[in-house]
Amino acid sequence: MKKTLLISTIVVSALLAEVPPLKPMNERTFSQSQYIPDISLITDFSYVYRNMEDSELGHLEIPGVAHALMGSHSHGEHSHATYNANNGFNFNYAELVLSSNVDPYFSMDAVFHFSEHGVEVEEAYFTTSMLPAGLRFRGGKLLSDFGRLNAQHHHFWDFGDMPLVYEAFLGNHGINELGMQLQWTAPTPFYLMAGVEVLQGNNEAMFGNGQIIDPNSADPDHPDVLGSEVRAPSMYVGYLKTSFDIGDTTIFPGVSYVYGSSRIDHFEDEEGPHAFSGNSTLYGADLTVKHYFDSYSFISWQSEWLMRHMDGTQYNDKATTTNSVELEKTQSGYYTQLVYSYDMNWRAAVRYDSIYQNDITKKGVAQEYVNSTIANPVSTSDNFNRYSAMAEYHPSEFSRIRLQYNRNNAMYNEDGEQQSIDTVMLQFNIAIGAHGAHSF
Q1: Predicted TM-score (pTM) of this structure
Q2: What's the mean pLDDT when you consider all of the chain?
């Protein structure tokens, strides 16, 4: 026995003698061929039934808050469509995702969004992997980490559409910008992260920095400037998020803030051409509570509150002249949802959306009515709400079939009449390839 151990020791010592000492990182030979990108393709199809014709949807709005939230609409020379836009069949998107480590110092991710209206780069960014002291830097085109929902892709949402307050305040794409992000994770026994972002500032619904030209200028070669260009970047984001466990329950609260210039040019819209020049602030608070019964069964309550303040000048195109008015808006809303997962295959959820504050002041006078893109004045009421319920079946982790019902009471037509829109959606979300795990 001792002889065997002696021989084994000699053999191991000889083998170790042949292994060269580990070189410092900056002297090692690097081969990027070792980093093969993960590639995945995610497709989303749906069948939709509404109690309203498609041609009517584009004329609806939330008075004083937003228009063109449903169906297809035109913005200048471009056509846009929200998810599940039309009655009948919808091809919502195909999402091509590439992700890989670049070297020991960086990783790279890219998401390409294909639809019937074209192709766009939804995200393309690099992320550091070796910064000290809990720091992480990201740069490129990215979804902001503002709030809870904004950084999540559509296929990860618990419902087939975006919450009403998100879509009304930030548009269907949310805050998706060119810019830089710096995050710091504190060395605490629980999760605590603070982040700041500097972004280009071209959000379609609330922020912008481009010059606004008067469409009714007397001299087209030397047009009048209504809103001067703002030097980019012009959007600044900050947030603080934490998470801790109490038994089998995880609690995840957060607060967020955005400030930026607003140069919003809708002069080329088909209806109610207008523009806004000023500054805007967005506040957010979110809370997620998730309790696990076992590995696959859980109940989750998620809520977000948003408030925006816009202060500046609104310009309205009156065919031959452009008038202006000092405008100030303070608007607030929230969504709250409850999701129950029975097992790894079945889930069900309910959601309530509300925009409950819609304070509009023109020339220092509070407005009882607002006339934005509709023919007749409409009360700036605060009873904009929507109810949703869904049930879904996951044959596997790569496929999902969802049935959803919405009752939308937030929209008004051109005659100033509140509409009650019933929508039934049958959604198929299918994925192939390697796809990274989503955050909690």
Answers
A1: 0.86
A2: 87
